[in-house]
Amino acid sequence: MSDVNENPQQPTDGQPRRTIRSFVMRAGRMTEGQQRGVEKGWPLFGLSLEQGLLDLNAVFGRQAPRTLEIGFGMGHSLLEMAQAAPEQDFIGIEVHRPGVGALLNGLLNNGLSNVRVYDCDAIEVLNRAIPDASLDRVLLFFPDPWHKKKHHKRRIVQPAFAELVRRKLKVGGVLHMATDWAHYAEHMLEVMNAAPGYRNQAADGTYIPRPDERPITKFEKRGERLGHGVWDLKFERVD
């Protein structure tokens, strides 16, 4: 999900340039529950870039394994993972406002306190808010594949992204990606195999079976019925 930044950066040569983003900001209509989530849940669980580099132990009030999910959609998987692992902490990033509201409403309804939420660009969050070597997992499930060749530069999985995530993971931490686009799976594999400091956890050096900890979404179940494949990749930081 990518677009061109409407606020061009000003480089040292004085010529404004537009930066490629990995998402498109989408408003969308919000249900009553989603609106409730934003109004009542955001003060409890919302985070902003203005807070700067986070002290994660202070944010969650404890020391625990930490997972960051990029692009959680409507929040169903993140909510399910947080419910299943109350001893772990989760940070979710999503720019789709109804999805943010849905997750926040779910946190309120289920009495969960182990999730925090950003509603802005994931790259900005990683660069400005997440300390180095602080995450046990980074999740990227079904990102926009930008399947047209001219749009491949908009794909979030690029060498610079791999290096940024590597810095934020602890040694032994894992980047877990999943996609239902075969060509994007091949692209992910190519980028990650070339990225320094990682080890592919697949025994054959390609893809892994769907791990139990990744919930199956309604979207994925529908795809399975239609015969669509899903590819999971796990790369561990080793350096």
UniProtKB/TrEMBL annotation:
PANTHER family: 3-DEOXY-D-MANNO-OCTULOSONIC-ACID TRANSFERASE/TRNA GUANINE-N 7 - -METHYLTRANSFERASE, PENTACOTRIPEPTIDE-REPEAT REGION OF PRORP DOMAIN-CONTAINING PROTEIN. Signal peptide: none annotated. Substrate binds at K148, D180, T217, K218, F219, E220. This is tRNA (guanine-N(7)-)-methyltransferase. InterPro entries: SAM-dependent_MTases_sf, tRNA_(Gua-N-7)_MeTrfase_Trmb, tRNA_methyltr_TrmB_bact. It holds the Pfam family Methyltransf_4. Its EC number is 2.1.1.33. It is an enzyme of class 2 (transferase). The keyword tRNA processing applies. GO terms for molecular function: tRNA (guanine(46)-N7)-methyltransferase activity. Belongs to the class I-like SAM-binding methyltransferase superfamily. TrmB family. S-adenosyl-L-methionine binds at E69, E94, D121, D144. Keywords: Methyltransferase, S-adenosyl-L-methionine, Transferase, tRNA processing. It catalyses: guanosine(46) in tRNA + S-adenosyl-L-methionine = N(7)-methylguanosine(46) in tRNA + S-adenosyl-L-homocysteine. Pathway: tRNA modification; N(7)-methylguanine-tRNA biosynthesis. HAMAP family: tRNA_methyltr_TrmB. Catalyzes the formation of N(7)-methylguanine at position 46 (m7G46) in tRNA.
